[in-house]
Specification:
Oligomer: single chain
Number of strands: 0
Structural class: mainly alpha
Largest sheet: none
Distance between the termini: 15 Å
Shape: elongated
Radius of gyration: 30 Å
Strand content: under 5%
């Protein structure tokens, strides 16, 4: 049974809370890090040093790096001039993460073989792993000079030039590389990313498609093609490519797919996608953060809070996790813990207007109106077009009896709404939802309200109406989350409090339900708080 839904009030929006990350910026593919292992060299069957060297190669190829290191060191102890053993020792040390030692060994190799393109390449790779791009580029360029058609070195030179901001030189390097090696799929993928970073999406898409044609099971190319298609507003094409990359085992593709599904209003599918990303990357903070955002949007506050806390264990400086944790805790009614989380977010990101607004809302709910006003004023000073913060400021000023100042804030809200294109888009979806309700089509109505919330996550009336549908369908926990979100967006909405009371009563929390009914009655004395009769959708 549902309560009468709001239809006439002008919706008021907020900036996204817990909205999942937009995958609209293409990033570097990983630079090639595989190190060249020279072929086995037999100096003579009676050489003990050679025997250790060959045993080291065998151990390296089977993945036993500890044994490989020991064998190479044994070979060098017998014959310190065995340069191949020293180079392989350097490769092994690099694979073990001993980068400084690896670089030292490679410099000894280069002292003996200054014209070894492979040694310069390997040293460049080690320097890359040490994040010394300038020195790495110099070594890789030496490798290319010594061996003009050295595909792996040319690929990394191009990537480093692009990262350093020398776009034209990078593009030239990629073109030279692909002219000599047209079937080098990894280079085509990387060139596509460089093109996409410059907004040359059609050229980038051509490179990604060529890479996939050369390597049909190339997950990074599929994902990058999806990102480029998404930037061209081809959501269906992007979704298809993300799914292909995910099917090939790309955890990042599950993140991208989940983001796209969430923005399309397919919350259940988005959550499943992010759950798979978490399974594949259990220690990745962003994966947990995105999963938490999806669960929060569905109203699963306990699940969302658990994910945000996991994020903060993995990365205590992840301020957005503190922000969303604070909002989720507030939606559960834990105002003290919510304020603590939001204050933590403020210490990490003091210039984030969203943090100040959400802390202001929380303080207002706690009754600390002066501090709430201070936080909301800080929010609008940092972001002058922040309509929801102006609305919250107006409400709080009105509660303190500062009516003239409140009216100024509300006037600013109206000005901002008239200039907000997303406002119109979300309102269109909201009205489509109301029309579907009038026809009794709950599926279409739910989809429309979810779409409205994907555009404007703090659309109070859309939260209220979506919650009413969920409550009618027996999804009580999710309905409670929607009603609390509606209250956060519009604390004066008596109907949201009333519906929250219905949901809490259904969940068996009679004390909290009574408090919600009482608050609804305080806001609107004409609102009936007895069990409602079924009313018509509006």
């Amino acid at each position: 049974m549902v309560d009468q839904l709001n239809s006439g009030a002008m919706p008021v929006f907020a900036e996204p809370v817990g909205r999942v990350r937009q995958f609209c910026i293409l990033v570097f593919a990983a630079l090639t890090v595989a190190l060249v292992l020279p072929p086995r060299v037999a100096f003579g069957s009676d050489s003990e040093a050679v025997q250790h060297f060959n045993l080291g190669n065998k151990a390296f190829q089977t993945g036993d790096l500890t044994q490989a290191e020991g064998e190479y060191r044994a070979a060098l102890k017998i014959d310190s001039a065995m340069i191949d053993a020293r180079q392989n020792l350097a490769i092994t040390l690099a694979q073990e993460g001993h980068l400084e030692a690896a670089a030292e060994e490679l410099r000894i190799v280069l002292a003996a073989r200054p014209n070894s393109a492979e040694a310069h390449y390997n040293l460049g790779q080690v320097l890359l792993q040490q994040k010394n791009d300038k020195a790495a580029l110099a070594e890789l360029q030496k490798a290319v000079k010594l061996k003009p058609n050295y595909p792996e070195a040319m690929n990394n030179v191009a990537l480093l030039l692009e990262r350093a901001g020398d776009k034209e030189a990078a593009f030239g390097e990629f073109r030279s590389l692909l002219a000599a090696n047209p079937r080098y799929a990894e280079a085509r993928n990387n060139f596509g990313q460089a093109l996409a970073n410059e907004g040359k999406l059609d050229e980038a898409i051509a490179q990604f498609r060529a890479a996939i044609k050369l390597r049909p099971g190339f997950p990074q190319a599929h994902e990058n093609l999806g990102l480029a298609l998404l930037n061209k507003k081809d959501k269906e094409g992007a979704r298809s490519e993300f799914q292909k990359a995910a099917d090939l085992g790309s955890a990042d593709a599950y993140l991208s797919l989940g983001v796209l599904l969430g923005e399309n209003g397919e919350l259940d599918a988005a959550v499943r996608s992010h759950q798979e990303a978490v399974r594949l990357m259990p220690d990745d903070p962003m994966a947990h953060f995105l999963l938490g955002g999806g669960l929060q949007q569905k109203g699963d506050l306990d699940g969302a809070i658990s994910e945000y806390r996991r994020v903060l264990r993995l990365d205590p400086q992840f301020s957005s996790a503190d922000l969303n944790l604070g909002v989720a805790l507030r939606e559960k009614g834990d105002l003290s813990e919510a304020a603590s989380a939001l204050e933590a977010a403020g210490r990490i990101s003091p210039e984030n207007p969203e943090v100040h607004y959400q802390l202001g809302v929380t303080l207002g709910r706690s009754g600390d109106l002066p501090r709430a006003i201070d936080e909301m004023r800080r929010a609008v000073s940092l972001k002058p077009n922040y309509s929801q913060a102006f609305y919250g400021l107006g409400q709080t000023l009105r509660r303190m009896g500062k009516l003239e100042e409140a009216q100024e804030a509300f006037s600013r809200v109206e000005q901002l709404h008239r200039a907000d294109a997303e406002f119109a888009q979300a309102n269109t979806q909201y009205n489509l939802g109301l029309a579907a309700l009038a026809k009794g089509n709950l599926d279409a109505a739910q989809k429309a309200f979810e779409m409205a919330l994907a555009i404007k996550p703090d659309f109070a009336e859309a939260h209220t109406n979506l919650g009413a549908i969920l409550l009618d369908r027996g999804e009580t926990r999710n309905a409670i989350g929607q009603f609390r979100a509606a209250i956060d967006a519009n604390p004066d909405d008596a109907r949201a409090y009333y519906n929250l009371g219905l949901a809490l009563e259904k969940a068996g929390d009679s004390e909290a339900a009574h408090a919600a009914f009482q608050h609804a009655l305080k806001l609107d004395p004409q609102l009936k708080t007895s069990a409602p009769a079924r009313q018509k959708w509006k």
